Amino acid sequence: MTQDPLVVFTPSGKRGRVPAGTPVLDAARRLGVDLDSVCGGRGICSKCQVAPAYGTFSKHGVTAAPDALSEWNAVEARYDAKRGLKPGRRLGCQARVMGDVVIDVPPESQVHRQVVRKSATLRAIEMDPATRLHLIEVAEPDMHEPAGDLQRVAAALAAQWDIPEITCDVSLLAKLQPALRKGGWQATVAVHSPHSGATPRLLEIWPGLHEGGLYGLAVDLGSTTVAAHLTDLDTGEVKASSGIMNPQIRFGEDLMSRVSYAMMNPGGAAEMTATVREAIDTLATAIAGEAGIDPALIVETVFVCNPVMHHLLLGVDPVELGQAPFALATSDSLELEARDLGLGAINPRARAYVLPCIAGHVGADAAAVALSEEPWRAEELTLIVDVGTNAEILLGDTSRVLACSSPTGPAFEGAQIAAGQRAAPGAIEAVRIDPETKEPRVRVIGCDLWSDEPGFAEAVGPGGVTGICGSGIIEAVAELRMAGLMDESGLIGSAAQTGSPRCVSDGRTQAYVLHDASAEGGPRIMVTQGDIRAIQLAKSALYAGARLLMDQRGVDRVDRVVLAGAFGAHISPRHAMVLGMIPDVPLDKVTSAGNAAGTGARIALLNRAARAEIERRVREIVKVETAIEPRFQEHFVAANAIPHAVDPFPELAAVAPLPRVAFNTGGGGAEGGRRRRRRA
Amino acid sequence: MTQDPLVVFTPSGKRGRVPAGTPVLDAARRLGVDLDSVCGGRGICSKCQVAPAYGTFSKHGVTAAPDALSEWNAVEARYDAKRGLKPGRRLGCQARVMGDVVIDVPPESQVHRQVVRKSATLRAIEMDPATRLHLIEVAEPDMHEPAGDLQRVAAALAAQWDIPEITCDVSLLAKLQPALRKGGWQATVAVHSPHSGATPRLLEIWPGLHEGGLYGLAVDLGSTTVAAHLTDLDTGEVKASSGIMNPQIRFGEDLMSRVSYAMMNPGGAAEMTATVREAIDTLATAIAGEAGIDPALIVETVFVCNPVMHHLLLGVDPVELGQAPFALATSDSLELEARDLGLGAINPRARAYVLPCIAGHVGADAAAVALSEEPWRAEELTLIVDVGTNAEILLGDTSRVLACSSPTGPAFEGAQIAAGQRAAPGAIEAVRIDPETKEPRVRVIGCDLWSDEPGFAEAVGPGGVTGICGSGIIEAVAELRMAGLMDESGLIGSAAQTGSPRCVSDGRTQAYVLHDASAEGGPRIMVTQGDIRAIQLAKSALYAGARLLMDQRGVDRVDRVVLAGAFGAHISPRHAMVLGMIPDVPLDKVTSAGNAAGTGARIALLNRAARAEIERRVREIVKVETAIEPRFQEHFVAANAIPHAVDPFPELAAVAPLPRVAFNTGGGGAEGGRRRRRRA
After folding, report:
1. Can you point out the beta strands (E) in B55-112?
2. Nearest by CB to B143, which of A148, A171, A324?
3. Which of A563, A623, A570 is nearest to A596 (CA)?
4. How large is the greatest C-alpha to C-alpha distance in chain A, in angstroms?
5. CATH homologous superfamily of A217-354
6. Of A465, A600, B130, B345, which has the fewest CB atoms closer than 10 Å, so is most exposed?
7. Roughly how many angstroms between the first and final C-alpha of chain B, as a whole number?
8. Under 8 Å CB-to-CB from B649, ≥6 apart: which residues?
9. What DSSP line would sit under B435-503, residue for residue?
């Protein structure tokens, strides 16, 4: 008796013997190999393409004869003629195993393929979205067995795809009958199974094989901007990313001013809800248009946002979030209909998943950052800071994760800064000041040249230099400190004290002229004493929040700092540390996670297990409430100095020695000093 | 050691010993006695009122001392002062068992109280609605345990009401926080649990104890009329019943003309859907107004309707129901949001339950009739006929139930009749013709006198006699037959043949003058040969359907006939049998079930087990499709004669001997005969 043929699948290495004549797709299923199929083996979807290898493979102990797989059959030939199979590829559902063989499953044929994230960590997302396509053959109606079309669709899903039970939205009922008849009783259905306990739900139906794809929208709903990533639910590929300003800004720049608006104006919360929902709907339409995709193919959405935006998105008045005990209306994740969030432009049955909030001040955005950065897997004690109008701060490692938020205010985003502006072409984003000459050079967004390089003016263009953005002001303040133009208390020295004519009087205080185009009728861009104070308040709040978590953890140093947020990506670690925004660590231990909240949203969109994981993790995270913790105020005051009044910064000292200067000679400087003492 | 006190509950007879000091409510729960409570034993809802009995009860072997229960406490005294307790009543949650006692639980204190139906069968509905009220005490928010308000509501329901898990519509989230704070962390919630497998759902929340009640709407959506019953979900009481014409009539009188309208007019189905949904919404508002109830307190709806109305209600084009194989889009019951059916006037989170359809031609209305009449419990073989524009027919007993529908057309409702009109004041509803004098007397709706009684004209009023309604035309045709004015073939004799001057020429045929007010300028109401033909077609279809079920069952007689439908309630059994509408049975075996479809809807509204039962039963019912069954045509032709060409009617013969007459002498009569032959 000859043995059954041996099949070895790569890259999994799974192997086993199957009876001669077994289709490769069946062999894969039997051996637990991840091989995709939408059409269920009918030779039309081509998702099960494999690349057989022939020859001797000593690694696997297999010699594959040229006839190890059955010859091309009519189905493969037809598919190849119509759509073209790549050389060397076979359809797994058609090719049959006839002898020992090695079969490679290319990434695009894997259901749970890995999607590499654009991130420093290079972690991959395993594809396991909640919504999947299935081709079904549905029994024709029979007068003697008068089951409805929906019941026969359900029977087909049970028999052909092992989905034993489904629910169906009433709005889809109207589409069932025409689709089934048009497709000759063959149809593709989109089935949504958010988690193992939920009854799968029919989201959409198409006649025959649907080849138009299926998409999801990951939305990072921030106080200032709304960013969305249109993602292919099959490949995980981001088809388009787009952002708009949050139109709620007209009701208040920061979160607390929006809470106030809701408190002061009857119907104010509802007004803000309608405004932001409309904006998201518009963004969804725009991004689908940008990617050239029918918005009706967007069947899933994921939202991450801070608690106030979370409540306003859900239509809940955020008033309780404006005062202790900062009670959330709901803290758990939500799985609901996207139309209930006012999304009318996408598929009418699209689903929405909202990540859980961690606490009344630490929202689903922080949860998304956690999901992206996974501090619970860190061997080193890691501080993750998501810098925005509010800073979300996580501290932890494999043993424990703590979280808080801190009200930094919008200074880091260029607001409350005399020459501040949003990050846009013309904004100064980088600053260097020569410690000898005290002369600055700057770089602006949209231009790679420094201002002291030839051709800068031409490269910047007619708009010229227009202002300072968030990362620009951080660098400017840090450079002032490093150049000895500003002292530890944050006081800018006078021209006499510093020897620089760029230090000019500005009322009772001094300012530093960063860029002067007034001769050409352009702006004179200065860093004012007020700017310094605003940055000091913001960075003190950030540092104090981090210190509070460190206290709670019982440490006075961390091993690693991760800067998250779109803004975090642009902060220079060295300047951030000179400013004392973050605790002292070796500079190479400060990394940027990019838009971690957006990445977290995308992970939740593409992987159901990730949803379950973050739902579990947020319960385990230790919540620290900055607003009621007396030590927060202490830490805040001590952090006012640049870099810090008390904490040593030895790592920083090694890479950026800071001159010892003091400009407090009464007048404006004394005012600053008095203010600090009052706070203590 | 003395024994624990013995408690005997009546009417259940449940008994047992409980430790002295046990509250009566706890004792009831421990002994499995059905005693209601909304407030969970806080002495405020008074749902747990009991009537203790003192003295010697030999039947129970108990002697209850006057101090068998604890004395009134402050809570009871406060309740009595505020709302008044009936004499002899105690609050079960406050009164404690101190000695042996007999305690009566009055019907209004039982959760599963029986509601007597207004029906000949006197069957009761056991109260077990899907939505119930629960008073909860919710933990206040705690900054150190930042669970959302919803999560603390869920925890309260789990701890205080043993409801381990809930879901919550996003629209209710906005109401949670204000309600909890207004009620001082005490709130009443409405929880919807449609069946044991479903996760309970929060439908509504009120601060403190909600005493405004909770209501459901049972809707019988017919082709011609829409009837609704507003029902108290606590007591089962019908607070108001109301009906309106189905506004879809303007698209077609009967179902097939509406299907045609959908086929011929793009968007026609959607137009009919919008029309009927709007009408139901208007009806809901009107009925709530009539009962003086806030429409927002209507949290559940149940719909019964034929398959075409079912599809139009759901927004599904009924085109497939117009042709074989009559495929339903969905046949199973539906549990959905009422807003998805366009109900905007009631609670925004109200639920809708649509009964299952039996087959493509036998709808949820027939299922409701079955639920009401329960043919599966009948010891006698029972034929249930729901007469409307379409007749739904059920035949069965404990062994098996069969169902079909038959297209009777609207003749039974007075349409297609020369002097036909809807049942309204002035319509002839009863007819008697003297077999000797051949003179008629009639009774009209809105007047109890016969037309030959003194004062008839005054009693009818100035409107006079206006036409003939459905039951009137049935009686008229049957009386013509009994009086020998019409022969077995349905031919009206001439004046010469019958000797009655009321037989007049009407074109080529004869007509019988039933009422002549032409001298006073009123109408001359005649039964025409065309009317007879219309009734013959309708009754033949009905009888043929019944016979088909009897064939399938292998019988040629039934034991009992139940006439259902609003119209069924007004048909005289004797006349129906003379006409041969229904098979021959003893007259006392013909009963009316009233509006059985509406009753079935109300049962499904009030009892969850009934929903499960009908869902199971419809699968077991044997469906017979009249449209494709060749014998239907045979039966139809044979049933054209009055009462029948072939089947003997011995029971009828005993109570109503029919004269042997034949008027077919050529002319109009022959035309009728030819038409019948052509159909054969």
Report:
1. 55-57, 62-64, 90-91, 96-97, 101-104
2. A324
3. A563
4. 102
5. Domain of unknown function (DUF4445) (3.30.420.480)
6. B345
7. 90
8. B577, B580, B584, B643
9. TTT--EEEEETT--S-TTSTTHHHHH-TT---EE-HHHHHHHHHHHHHTTSB-TTSPBPPHHHH--TTE
CA A180 vs CA A6, A136, A144, A434, B484: distances in Å = 41, 10, 19, 74, 57
What is the number of other CB atoms lying within 10 angstroms of the CB of residue B668? 20
Max CA separation in chain B (angstroms): 102
Q: Amino acid identity, residue B54?
A: Y
For residue B171, give the chain A residue with the closest CA.
Answer: A315
Distance CA A177, CA A207 (A): 10
User: What value, to the nearest 5°, has the Cα angle with vertex A590 and ends A117 and A390?
Assistant: 80
Question: Residue B142 is nearest to which of A140, A315, A325, comparing CB atoms?
Answer: A325
CB contact under 8 A, B329 and A173: yes
Q: Taking 50 as the threshold, does the pLDDT of residue A532 lie above it? A: yes
The CATH number assigned to the domain with range B114-207 reads: 3.10.20.880
Contacts (Cβ under 8 Å, ≥6 apart) of A54: A64, A65, A66, A68, A101
Reported as a pLDDT band with limits 50, 70 and 90, residue B438 is very high
User: Which class would CATH give B215-354?
Assistant: alpha beta
What letter would DSSP give residue A486? B
Return residue ranges of chain A for CATH 3.10.20.30: 6-109
Q: Give per-residue pLDDT as tens, B90-119.
A: 999 999 999 999 999 988 888 887 775 554
**Model confidence pLDDT, tens digit, residues A2-19:** 789 999 998 888 899 999
> Band of the pLDDT at B526, cuts 50, 70, 90?
very high
Give span(s): CATH 3.10.20.880, chain A. Answer: 117-207
Q: What would the pLDDT profile of B391-432 be if each residue is shown by its tens digit?
A: 899 999 999 999 998 888 778 877 788 998 877 888 999 999
Measuring CA to CA, which residue among A316, A326, A334, A486 is closest to residue A390? A326
pLDDT at A674 over 50: no
Q: What is the mean pLDDT of chain B?
A: 90
CA distance A615 to chain B (A): 13
Q: Is the pLDDT of residue B669 over 90?
A: no
- Residue A92 near residue A28 (C-beta atoms within 8 A): yes
- Quick check: helix, strand or coil at residue A512? strand
Q: Is A195 within 8 Å of A216 (Cβ atoms)? A: no
> What number of C-beta contacts closer than 8 Å exist between A and B?
150
Q: Name which of B422, B455, B433, B406 is nearest B581 in CA terms.
A: B406
Domain B6-109: CATH class, spelled out? alpha beta
Instruction: Write out the residue limits of the CATH 3.30.420.480 domain(s) in chain A.
Output: 217-354
Distance CA A216, CA A272 (A): 25
Q: Quick: pLDDT tens for A587-630.
A: 999 998 888 999 999 999 999 999 999 999 999 999 998 878 88
- Name the fold adopted by A117-207: Ubiquitin-like (UB roll) (3.10.20)
When pLDDT is cut at 50, 70 and 90, the band that residue A566 belongs to is low
**Is the full-model pTM beyond 0.90?**
no
pLDDT tier for residue B43 given thresholds of 50, 70 and 90: confident
Residue B209 has pLDDT above 80, yes or no: yes
pLDDT value, residue B192: 97
Looking at residue A423, its pLDDT comes to 79
Give residues with Cβ within 8 angstroms of B462, minimum separation 6.
none
* Angle formed by the axes of helices B268-291 and B307-314, nearest 10°: 90
Residue type, A679: R
User: Which residues, in sequence order, are bridge partners of residue B299?
Assistant: none
Instruction: Identify the residue among A173, A263, A319, A632 best suited for mutation to test binding to B, counting B beta carbons within 10 A and taking the highest.
Output: A173
Residues in chain A within 8 Å Cβ distance of B326: 141, 143, 146
